[in-house]
Amino acid sequence: MELFLTLVSGIAWTVVYAEAIRLGLRQRTYAMPVAALALNFAWETTYAVNEFRGGVSPQGVVNVVWALADVVIVYTFFRFGRAELPGFVTRPLFAAWGALVFGSAFAVQWLFLAHFGAHDASRYAAFLQNLLMSGLFIALFAGRGGARGQSLVIAVAKWLGTLAPTLLFGVMEDAPFILGLGLLCGVFDLAYIALLVHGRARGTGADVRSLPVPSR
Q1: Closest to 126 measured CA to CA, from 56, 39, 192
Q2: What is the tens place of the pLDDT at every residue in 124-159?
Q3: How does DSSP assign 43-69, residue by residue?
Q4: What DSSP element (H or E) covers 172?
Q5: CA–CA dist 158, 137 (Å, integer)
Q6: How far is CA 167 from the centre of its chain?
Q7: Distance CA 6, CA 215 (A)
Q8: Are residues 186 and 134 in contact, defined by beta-carbon separation less than 8 angstroms?
Q9: Nearest Cα residue to 124 out of 113, 137, 138
Q10: DSSP H helical segments within 145-175, as ranges?
C-alpha cells in the first residue's frame, strides 16, 4: 500500500507539472504561484539529494522527476513572469526579486531540515507549502480574473496527489498534524476545483484565448 500511494502521488504531481509546463509555454505565462513554485523546487532538489544518499528509492526517483519538471516551470516564470507585474518593475529588478524568492525558499527548506531532521522536515515542509499552494491557486484565479495558466487537470491532479500522501503519512503513520494539514489542503483544493468549474460555466475560464494576455 505504501508503494501504491507513493506512486499515485508521484504520477498525479507529475501530471500537475506536465500540464503547468504545457499551459505556461502555450499561453506565455507561468502556471504555478511563484512562492509555491520556489518552495516546491527547493524541497524537491533538497530531498532528492537526501534520498539518494541512502541509495535509490521510489520517492527519490519521483523527487528527481519533479525537480527536472520544475526547472521548466521556473523558466516560464522568469521568461514570462515580468509581464504579470506593473511596468515600473524592470527586468533587473524582476530578476533580483525572483532570485530573492527562490533563495529564500532554499533557506526555509534547509532551516526545516536542520531543526526537525530529514524525516519530519520533509513531511512538515511539504504539507505546509502544499496548503500555501492551495490557497495561492485560488488567489491566482482571482488576480488574473479567470483561468489563464490554470486548468481542471492541474486542480484535480493536485488534489489526488495530496490525498495519497495524506493517507500514507497522516492515516497509516498516525500523524495527526499531517492529517490535519492534508485535510485542509483537500478543502482548498476542492474549492479551487469548484471555482474553475463555476468559472467555466460563466465563461471566465471557458476559453483562455478570449482573455487578455500581457504583452510587456
Answers
A1: 39
A2: 999 999 999 999 999 999 999 999 999 999 999 999
A3: HHHHHHHHHHTT---HHHHHHHHHHHH
A4: none
A5: 11
A6: 19
A7: 41
A8: no
A9: 113
A10: 152-165
Q: Rounded CA gap, 2 and 7, in Å? A: 9
Report the alpha-carbon distance of residue 31 to residue 15 in Å, rounded: 13
Closest among 164, 156, 166, 150 to 189, alpha carbons compared: 156
pTM value surpassing 0.70: yes
C-alpha angle 75-80-84 in degrees, rounded to nearest 5: 135
What distance, in Å, lies between the first and last C-alpha atoms of the chain?
49
Domain ranges of the chain: 2-210
Q: What angle do CA 4, 9, 12 make, to 5 degrees?
A: 120
Query: In whole angstroms, what is the distance from residue 124 CA to residue 67 CA?
Result: 19
Residue 14 CA to residue 16 CA, distance in Å, equals 5
Q: Which of 58, 66, 64 is nearest to 20 (CA)?
A: 66
Q: What sign does the dihedral 70-74-80-86 (CA atoms) show?
A: positive
d(CA 103, CA 96): 10
Instruction: Enter the DSSP assignment of 81.
Output: G
**Which tens digits make up the pLDDT trace of 65-80?**
889 999 999 999 999 9
